């Protein structure tokens, strides 16, 4: 990609907007509060470092990852409609986490609860990989359809559970359905990033193999790439990646589907690696913007961020499609 | 150590192809050998197993029983990395991302040798000017692959396959959708490439005039199995083509 001065200008504007998101919220904070913990900035300083910045880091990691995962699925399944939630991984995690929360009385974002979610998702991953490797056909369509079937069953189970649960106990379990960004500590957010960023780097490195795979399985095999092996490996690694995100934020829709398409429409990246980098930045920006908006619209109320991403992203996507 | 016969590039022994053990493509295993430095035409009616044979050279899941050797390597055991060093293909149905440009598509030819971390050499660098000329790609190098005509696109696919510097190129009905001029351009590019370096060619086609004109050797499959494997001259002199398609 070569950048004209015009495009560079836009990139600068977007970067500036991006960095301003932690300072926007129920109350606007001035950047000087970042390093000045004294005087009337004392409270702002603490809000920034213990609430806004951890949340910003979480949003950047989650949004960027979801967009990259969407791009990956679209290539490995050779299907423009593929998105991170298509295989039922995040339904499994959500079901696990909600069950852990209600049946085992585990705190919402505790490690124990996370493990319950991971167990559920690994179960689904094992099923998916078995369904791909077991029969000799190894058709990609089958694994997508299989995953969709699993997704329907698990999300219905989740609905059943949530409707029972919300009637008997009330509570915020519904937030898992739309995707919700929790307030976490700086430490937790750094933990999250330390898990998610290496996974993004692995995906980026495998971009080369995905370039080959995007030319079809036959050609890929003559380019030194084993389509079956790379699919199984990617299925495994992306499922872990998605599990980590879904166990923290629930299912934030639309980013994985739409951000890669928007990137393709606007930038026409020449390789999967470039698509990944651009998708990460686009997804991070988009989720950060949606999250800020969800808090700014009617403070101190906070909307589930998944609703905002869909309301914002849908029209944008339609506009880009219309224009091209 | 397997016996390597250098004068054949493909050797099949009791080979049975298909994707379902209960319904193999042939009645019994077929055996044949294809001589190196020949342009081999793979002919036969639809469903005889031409594409399956070509695909079996790439992915061994189509081999039910028997052995298929290519340059002495057992194709059931060859890894994709090894495969990429001696075979490339222009498949019947080619996939590519909608926004991909010709030059970036061509640069992917260097992917097998660049590894995970090496950078792909730019197709516009001097090193590849000759290749661009051979395939007459200079005018379209900056275009989006999707927007090319079928003839141009097929030439781009061929260029990518040959830039990989294979010993053997598999062409699966490459000129099917092309008009006579585009077909001629396609074949001219191959001949011009072949005049500079050795290349074995296995081409599946329905165009018997083309086979008579350009190929040296015929491998004919029919619903039963192997119909004929031998020099082109005998195939046409015995009027076997009439038998094959009736």
Give the SSE map.
The complex is a heterodimer of chains A (324) and B (246).
Chain A: H1 5-20, H2 42-76, H3 89-103, H4 111-133, H5 140-168, H6 175-178, H7 186-205, H8 207-213, H9 217-221, H10 227-249, H11 255-267, H12 272-296, H13 305-323
Helix pairs in contact in A: 2-7, 2-10, 2-11, 2-12, 3-4, 3-5, 3-10, 4-5, 4-10, 7-10, 11-12, 11-13, 12-13
Chain B: E1 8-17, E2 30-35, E3 39-43, H1 50-56, E4 63-70, E5 73-74, H2 80-84, E6 87-90, H3 102-107, H4 111-114, H5 129-134, H6 150-163, E7 168-172, H7 180-194, E8 200-204, H8 208-214, E9 217-221, E10 226-231, H9 232-237, H10 240-244
Parallel strand pairs in B: 3-8, 3-9, 6-7, 7-8
Antiparallel strand pairs in B: 1-2, 1-4, 4-5, 9-10
Helix pairs in contact in B: 6-7
What does the model show?
- The complex is a heterodimer of chains A (324) and B (246).
- In chain A, α3 runs parallel beside α5.
- In chain A, 72% of the residues lie in helices and 0% in strands.
- Chain A has helices at 5-20, 42-76, 89-103, 111-133, 140-168, 175-178, 186-205, 207-213, 217-221, 227-249, 255-267, 272-296, 305-323.
- Chain A has 324 residues and is mainly alpha-helical.
- Chain B has one domain: Rossmann fold, CATH 3.40.50.
- Chain B is 30% helix and 23% strand.
- Chain B contains ten helices and ten strands.
- Chain B has helices spanning 50-56, 80-84, 102-107, 111-114, 129-134, 150-163, 180-194, 208-214, 232-237, 240-244, and strands at residues 8-17, 30-35, 39-43, 63-70, 73-74, 87-90, 168-172, 200-204, 217-221, 226-231.
- In chain B, α6 (150-163) runs parallel beside α7 (180-194).
- The radius of gyration of chain B is 18 Å and the shape is globular.
- The N and C termini of chain B lie far apart (43 Å).
């Amino acid at each position: 990609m070569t950048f004209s001065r015009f495009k560079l200008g836009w990139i600068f504007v977007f970067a500036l907007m991006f960095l301003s998101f932690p300072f926007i919220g129920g109350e606007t904070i001035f950047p000087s509060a970042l390093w000045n913990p004294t005087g009337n900035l004392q409270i702002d300083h603490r809000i920034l470092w213990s609430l806004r910045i951890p949340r910003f880091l979480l949003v950047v990691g989650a949004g960027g990852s979801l967009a990259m995962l969407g791009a990956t699925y679209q290539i490995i399944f050779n299907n423009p409609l593929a998105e991170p939630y298509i295989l039922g991984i995040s339904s499994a995690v959500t079901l696990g986490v909600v069950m852990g929360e209600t049946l085992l009385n585990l705190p919402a974002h505790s490690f124990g609860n996370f493990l319950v979610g991971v167990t559920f998702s690994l179960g689904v991953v094992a099923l998916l990989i078995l369904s791909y490797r077991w029969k000799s056909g190894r058709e990609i369509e089958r694994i997508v359809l299989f995953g969709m079937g699993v997704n329907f069953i698990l999300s219905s189970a989740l609905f059943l559970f949530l409707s029972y649960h919300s009637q008997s106990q009330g509570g915020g379990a519904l937030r898992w359905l739309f995707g919700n960004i929790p307030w976490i500590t700086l430490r937790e957010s750094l933990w999250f990033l330390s898990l998610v960023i290496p996974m993004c780097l692995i995906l980026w490195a495998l971009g080369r193999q995905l370039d080959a795979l995007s030319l079809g399985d036959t050609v890929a095999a003559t380019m030194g790439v084993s389509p079956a092996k790379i699919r199984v490996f990617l299925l495994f690694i992306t499922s872990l990646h998605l599990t980590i995100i879904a166990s923290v934020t629930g299912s934030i829709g639309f980013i994985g589907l739409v951000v890669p398409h928007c990137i393709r429409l606007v930038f026409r990246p020449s390789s999967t690696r470039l698509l990944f980098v651009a998708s990460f930045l686009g997804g991070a920006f988009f989720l950060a913007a949606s999250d800020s908006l969800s808090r700014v619209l009617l403070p101190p109320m906070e909307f589930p961020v998944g609703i905002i991403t869909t309301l914002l992203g849908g029209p944008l996507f339609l506009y880009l499609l219309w224009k091209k | 150590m397997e016996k390597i016969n250098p004068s054949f590039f493909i050797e099949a022994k009791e080979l049975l192809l298909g994707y379902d053990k209960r319904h193999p493509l042939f009645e019994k295993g077929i055996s044949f050998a294809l001589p190196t430095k020949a342009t081999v035409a793979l002919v036969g009616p639809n469903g005889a197993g031409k594409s399956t044979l070509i695909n079996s050279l790439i992915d061994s899941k189509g081999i039910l029983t028997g052995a298929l050797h290519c340059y002495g390597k057992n194709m059931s055991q060859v890894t994709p990395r090894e495969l990429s060093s001696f075979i490339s293909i222009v498949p019947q149905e080619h996939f590519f991302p909608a926004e991909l440009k010709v030059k970036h598509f061509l640069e992917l030819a260097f992917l097998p040798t660049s590894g995970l971390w090496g950078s792909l050499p730019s197709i516009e660098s001097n090193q590849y000017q000759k290749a661009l000329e051979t395939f007459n790609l200079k005018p379209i190098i900056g275009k989006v692959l999707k927007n090319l005509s079928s003839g141009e696109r097929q030439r781009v696919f061929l260029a990518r396959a040959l830039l990989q510097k294979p010993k053997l190129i598999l062409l699966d009905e490459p000129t099917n959708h092309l008009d006579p001029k585009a077909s001629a351009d396609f074949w001219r590019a191959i001949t011009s490439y072949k005049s500079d370096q050795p290349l074995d060619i296995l081409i599946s086609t329905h165009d018997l005039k083309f086979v008579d004109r350009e190929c040296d050797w015929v491998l004919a499959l029919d619903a039963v199995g192997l119909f004929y494997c031998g020099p082109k001259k005998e195939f046409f002199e015995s009027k076997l083509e009439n038998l094959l398609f009736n």
